[in-house]
Description:
Layout: H1 2-13, H2 21-26, H3 34-47, H4 57-78, H5 83-102, E1 105-107, H6 109-114, E2 130-132, E3 146-148, E4 156-158, H7 160-177
Parallel strand pairs: 1-2
Antiparallel strand pairs: 3-4
Amino acid sequence: MTILIALILGxxxxxxxxxAYSELAAVSIxxxxxxxxxxxxxxxxxxxxxxxxxxxxELVLVLSWLAGAGILLVVCWRNRWLAGFRLCALGLLANxxxxxxxxxxxxxxxxxxxxxxxxxxxxxxxxxxYHVARExxxxxxxxxxxxxxxxxxxxxxxxxxxxxxxxxxVVVVLECSLPRxxxxxxx
Length: 187
């Protein structure tokens, strides 16, 4: 949902930077067919709850997420001439690091409290990928620690990596709306 909002925000900002929607149709982004595969591999662990008794299920979910991130990083690399893709890559790398070190995404209980949500009602306690940060959590500042308040459907706890990824998506849309050769966003 937040990715869709980043895309919409980018589209709404196009006129403010004197971009053109027609330029978006002419852009050639490399690796577009890989994007759905990468996103699906990342969504599976976040949406799938398997029996905790299943052997190594946590590792399989983490590897699925990391494989999706790897595919998306390839797309970012192939389009590194756009600053937005470089931001997306930083976000993916930050999330990958904290997920790999903690065998899933740690979620700050304080961030959940700020949204008046407890971990149990958010489904985090029994989930195999997201887990409440605890003593010994590595690089928690890269975990899901930023509460995003708003309408219930938008409420979420985001990571620094998520924020970089969302900003990167907005920047890609804006960069692609500029006439070829303009290079970067106007200052």
